[in-house]
């Protein structure tokens, strides 16, 4: 019988200390500390060009820091599948040749597991009839819901969300933030990057403000 995730795995979250990153002689991140706790949101805010996306890439293990440390519980590197990411522009990160059903099911396909995609679609407010469509045939909000559904299937310890609502209308944005809150309530540690100070202040237990020095 297909399995529908109902709760995310518990984790110790992550702790980043004194991160420094530079490119071409330019310092992007300078002595940045961040803690993401399980069942909680940590906000990252600041003006454009202050390294918010770079910070997420360092936390995901995609970009090495010049100095500083990142710990994932007791590990120096994240366990396979422990980190899930939600992009600002979902169309740039999904395969345009995949249906939404395939996009949602991707983590289970990789691991050889089974999942009830229709049930996941219902949880994220995505009509089952849309699952057979391709990204070009749905709205940004619908595609972002599918990407959140993929996170539910993956059940990561840590979610890194990079301006996940910037491309959405206010109604869709509120819906996606609500879905992310459900993922946090299921036990994930979530790092939310946003230009909107009000959003991070209302949702996040801790806030890291870049470019404030």
TrEMBL record:
Give the protein's recorded name.
ATP-binding cassette domain-containing protein
Q: Does the keyword Nucleotide-binding apply?
A: yes
Which keywords, in A-to-Z order, does the entry hold?
ATP-binding, Nucleotide-binding, Transport
Biological-process GO terms, alphabetical = transmembrane transport
* Transmembrane segment boundaries: none
One Gene Ontology molecular-function label: ATP hydrolysis activity
Q: Gene3D superfamilies under this entry?
A: P-loop containing nucleotide triphosphate hydrolases (3.40.50.300)
Q: Which Pfam families match?
A: ABC_tran
Span of domain ABC transporter: 14-212
Q: Does the keyword Secreted apply?
A: no
What InterPro entries has UniProt attached to this entry?
Answer: AAA+_ATPase, ABC_transp_ATP-bind, ABC_transporter-like_ATP-bd, P-loop_NTPase
Q: Which organism is it from?
A: Gordonia desulfuricans
Q: Which domain of life is it from?
A: Bacteria
UniProt record similarity statement: Belongs to the ABC transporter superfamily.
**Species lineage:** Bacteria, Bacillati, Actinomycetota, Actinomycetes, Mycobacteriales
